Structure formats: C-alpha cells, structure tokens
Amino acid sequence: xxxxxxxxxxxxxxxxxxxxxxxxxxxxxxxxxxxxxxxxxxxxxxxxxxxxxxxxxxxxxxxxxxxxxxxxxxxxxxxxxxxxxxxxxxxxxxxxxxxxxxxxxxxxxxxxxxxxxxxxxxxxxxxxxxxxxxxxxxxxxxxxxxxxxxxxxxxxxxxxxxxxxxxxxxxxxxxxxxxxxxxxxxxxxxxxxxxxxxxxxxxxxxxxxxxxxxxxx
Length: 217
Known about the structure:
Largest sheet: 6 strands, parallel
Domain HTH luxR-type: 149-214
Number of strands: 6
Distance between the termini: 42 Å
Shape: globular
Structural class: alpha/beta
Strand order of the largest sheet: 2-1-3-4-5-6
Number of helices: 11
Domain Response regulatory: 3-119
Radius of gyration: 18 Å
Helix content: 55-70%
Protein name: Response regulator
Keywords: DNA-binding, Phosphoprotein, Transcription, Transcription regulation
C-alpha cells in the first residue's frame, strides 16, 4: 500500500482528495494536515510514502514545507497540489525537489496516476504544469539549444519524433495516444524508448528538447 498524507487548509478539499484516493486498492490516506507545519510534524511521527501539499496555506505554505521535508525526510516523495499554476510556483517546486506538480482541477484518474508515479520514484507533472515549465525554460540561448536538440533528435525514428512532439505540447500518454491513434500502453513504451535514446531523466526534459528543436511547432 502507498501511504499518503493529504495537506490542505480546506477540510472539504482534503475530504474530496481522500474520497478519490480511497477508491484505489493500492493507496491509503493515513494522515491529513491543515498546514505545512502539521505536515512536517506528521511525517516525522508516521511512515509516509507520498505527501500531497497545497501551496497556499497558513502557518507554513506548501513550498516551505517541501523544502523542510526534502531536508529532514528525503525518502518521502512530495507532490505539490494547487489551483495556482503560475510558472514560478512550478519551477520553484521542481528546484526544491518536488516529485511532481498537480493542478487541483486534474481528473481523479490523474491524481491517482501521480501518486503511483511519485511512489515509484518517477517525476510527474500534469500536462498544464509541463507547458508552464517548457514555455518558461525554453527562452534565452535559443540558437545554441536548438542546434544541440536537433543533433540529439537525429537518433529517433519518425514515429518516436511524432510522440516526442506531443510530449512537447504537454499531452499525457492517453491524450497523445488519441491524437496519433495509439493505445496508452504503446505510447508509454515509446516514451520509455525516447527517454533512453535521448538520455533524459523524465518527460519534462524530453519536452524541452522537443521545443528547442522546433518539433511540432
């Protein structure tokens, strides 16, 4: 079972997240917190695999709590969950060591996917958050990055380039599959192959390469 901590200052939000995650056989919400300070204390006293942290909270906000958890409990995977999708929040969360960034208007299935990915040690960004990162980081030094990206993409097949272009748009595996008439499982296989060939740690790095190379634009 994946042991989850849900942190949000709104009781109804916490209840909604708990209800969604309770429908999964492999996820157990073992604790709730109303602010970042409570979350940090609960992690110290309980075994938590994945902590969901809202950003805007009293006493201690989610990003400050993230930094504290990365310092004191690096084994805990942290997902930032918020209604605020501003680029600086996404980038700061990633720089502080977040396992992912999920917007509160995400579908229930995406929430469960994110928790499972984080527990497995993978990075997870919602499609909307991916677009924020790509748009923000893909500016400045464009010419040099474009040449480097095009060289790296030369090792991909035409079909792999098609899939990579959709990653650059921030699409999920399911949405990408619908766009190019592939099953979600097949797209996932392609993504794994692409990451290996490009020597990227996650799909965000691959998306940045796609954007730098002008793929799909």
